[in-house]
């Protein structure tokens, strides 16, 4: 709900909540101007496979076990974009049982997903991606990852945040059995 604050004669603040659907939250087409989406993905790691993170090959002895290239953060980002518009999830649009998507570059999946977003009249305001991975350290790759994601989405790199953390040696990521990623997006409907 949108909050409309007014000052009372005594100097206090009086708050009147406006329900969603008021002029401040809807475009002229009747759609919400802003939509938020969250995504999450996880993949197991195995020796001898390539590790692709945000479209960048990261040097490591392990990589993702996956039907596609296993780019966990890009899969989370696809889910965030789809979720913001209630379009389902990545598995609905790109099933992992389909031969069409075997070994596919996840940048292609992201591009197709963002095409659905644009076809719905929305554009990306910003995306925030968090990668949970015990090893390797990916700080040296972050700028390149941001550039790759921005290039696929056709936006300025300042609209893309990529950050990483460990799980302090706890759980499957801490034992280096897998990688997980979270993504949040804000979309804007053009009037």
Please characterize this protein's 3D structure.
It is a single chain. With 191 residues, this protein is α+β, with helices and mostly antiparallel strands. It folds into 2 domains: 1-26, no CATH class; 31-189, 60s Ribosomal Protein L30, Chain: A. Helices cover 25% and strands 34% of the residues. The strands form 3 sheets. A 5-stranded mixed β-sheet has the order 6-3-9-7-8. The chain has a two-stranded antiparallel ribbon with strand order 1-2. A hairpin with a 2-residue loop joins β4 (51-53) and β5 (56-58). The longest helix has 14 residues, at 106-119. The protein is globular, with a radius of gyration of 19 Å. Residues 1-8 and 12-20 have low confidence and may be disordered.
Order of helices and strands: EEEEEEHHHEHEHE
Q: How much β-strand is present in the residues?
A: 25-35%
Share of residues in helices: 10-25%
How is the main sheet built? 5 strands, mixed
Span of the ends, CA to CA = 21 Å
The fourth-level CATH homologous superfamily of the largest domain is 2-C-methyl-D-erythritol 2,4-cyclodiphosphate synthase
Number of strands: 9
Give the CATH level 1 class of the largest domain: Alpha Beta
Give the structural class. alpha+beta
Number of helices: 5
Q: Based on CA inertia axes, which overall geometry fits?
A: globular
Mean pLDDT: 87
Q: Identify low-pLDDT runs.
A: 1-8, 12-20
Show the helix and strand layout.
Elements: E1 2-7, E2 13-18, E3 34-47, E4 51-53, E5 56-58, E6 62-64, H1 72-84, H2 90-93, H3 106-119, E7 122-132, H4 142-153, E8 160-165, H5 171-174, E9 178-189
Parallel strand pairs: 7-8
Antiparallel strand pairs: 1-2, 3-6, 3-9, 4-5, 7-9
